[in-house]
Design a protein that fits this description.
single chain; alpha/beta; seven-stranded parallel sheet; 10 helices; 7 strands; globular; binds NADP nicotinamide-adenine-dinucleotide phosphate
Amino acid sequence: MATEACLNTDWAVVTGASKGLGAAIAKHLAAGHGVGRPVRGLILVARSRDALEKLQVELDSIARTSGREPLAIRIVDADLSDPQKGVATVLAGAEGLEVTLLINCAGLAASCSNFEDTAEAQLQKEMAVNVLTPMYLTRSLLPGMIQRGGTVLNIASVAALLPAPYMATYGASKAWILSWSLALSRELRSTPVKVTCFCPGHFHSDFDNAAPGSAERAITKSWALTERNVDKVAKSALKCTRRGRRWGTNGWINWLNLMTSGMLPLRLILAIAAKLQWVRQCRW
Ligand SMILES: NC(=O)c1ccc[n+]([C@@H]2O[C@H](COP(=O)([O-])OP(=O)(O)OC[C@H]3O[C@@H](n4cnc5c(N)ncnc54)[C@H](OP(=O)(O)O)[C@@H]3O)[C@@H](O)[C@H]2O)c1
């Protein structure tokens, strides 16, 4: 396994790295396909230490076979639904390292159902992981990044641009991330920090198992609207960031949806969005 090679510069923090999009992004970074200069080290953040340890072995082998400089990896198991404690744990894991890339990817949907049926505790977790933790983590790492240069990649969703009935809070949390990222990108214009917000459409991952009801949504079952390959989504997110775009999405269907949605009456957009998110227990 790679050691830290005494190099404390050019580290990346990836939250939600244990599976899905975060793990796929980490694999690209390990292969040296990042958002610019290859990172020297990765800080992998999630709750599942076992999954992170498995990924560490895989990333080490990807780094060695890709012929790049040795890659150092640190694992941080942190529950980001407690923002203060979670962020403090990540910062302790990054102690002594110069982080130049922050990828806020951890995220969840509390449920796919009528809003009033969703447990308050789940809604609280959803807002903490999707909104508060990225905000506090970025707030903590930004001063150092402004000094040495860096990039923030925030993962939102197409739900940031189109409301998502039956996943109303999830959509609103992603709209928050998008709005915040766009504003920050302007605010940081005169600094060496770039901010990108990537808004993928639905893709296959554990997300559908983690969110009650998600697997039964029309959008999950509808092959034409669904990206099956998480690796492609990761590639698009990194490409969008590398190009210095303020925001982006993947796939022509998502582009078409987003570009044409402004031309349709809101009532129709909401009806289509509701149909795509609808599952049996929901009111119609
Ligand atoms: N899948 C989609 O269709 C889709 C579409 C648009 C946007 N997105 C967004 O893409 C991002 C990645 O989602 P994904 O589809 O890859 O989902 P996933 O496979 O369920 O992965 C979610 C990641 O977030 C981490 N996470 C969840 N709750 C956490 C907590 N309390 N503390 C720390 N880490 C936590 C998970 O790690 P542990 O469970 O190990 O903690 C996991 O690594 C999310 O922000 C999601 O909103 C997904």
